[in-house]
Amino acid sequence: MVKRYGNLWPSVITKENIRLSYEQAKLGKGKKRNVRLFNRDLENNLEKIRQSLVNKTFTTAHYSTKTVFEPKRRTIYILPFNPDRIVQHAVMNVLIPIWDNLFIAESYACRDNKGMHKGSLKTMEYIRGNRYCLKCDISKFYPSINHDVLKSIVRRKIKDKDVLWLIDDIIDSFPGETNTPIGNFTSQWFGNLYLNELDQFVRHQLKIKCYLRYCDDFCLFHNDKKVLNDAAAKIRQFLTDRLRLRMSKCDLFPVSRGVDFLGYRHFPEYILLRKSTAKRARKRIKKAVYNLHRHKITAEQFRSVIASYDGWMKWAKTYNLRIKLDLDRLREASKNARTANDILARL
Description:
This protein is of the alpha+beta class. It is built from 16 helices and nine strands. The strands form three sheets. The chain has a four-stranded antiparallel sheet with strand order 4-5-3-6, with helices on both faces.
């Protein structure tokens, strides 16, 4: 029998948890105006948030939106720092340990000690032991998450009525029957919990051992092409019937062709950077150098861009690309530099 958790609410509303949630929510945002205003009366503001939960007067605010175009066009939904982002951290601090224990080891998104690079290493392990790959993703995943289905999945492990009140409020904050807005801290965990149903189906019903998932992209590996063909049909039916989702891509191919996954192209003997990632790196690094010369960005901002792509490329065979981008020289020039002029003097 599956254990269901109650008596969680007291842990959500402790002063210590509300303060921790504030620290988590403001990470990297300490200089923003709304955070600085909040800090002027920090203790009272934290207590107001706590009391809004104690008295059940909290309700999720209206969303503002922005559109991003990299790596693809998406709408990001934004809630206020105070109180929404703090409240979401407060409830997830209690729920994450419970939910994380449900997930398979090969679910790599938004989890401690997981991530894209570890997923890439596991992909290489599976490629070297199998002849075929079934690579799939889900059409408009986050906008398609069904509220009622999500609530029913949450209730399989959580029975605390107060926690369920808050979770339901966050889920229902987006009108209609579907969507967990990209931008919410809770959404990445709702997404993982939702597709954990698929993970368990593939592992325990289909009995596919070589399987991994990152968000709504997932791969199955096997030496028998027919096994993967059968799995594709069953997965499609499961997604439709149980999760009300639709696959957008489902490609079965020999691993010798290379598995394009997690930003890399994986071959049995080596890893290459995905072409679109390499193209984006060229564009962003060129723009960063241009902005540095015109003092439109700080030394820290420039160093962040260089470090980001340096980190990506260390995991792949990118010697020639690094030379073309002059990446090593840019990294050394920005190392320990305090100002843009310090970097420019070294170039």
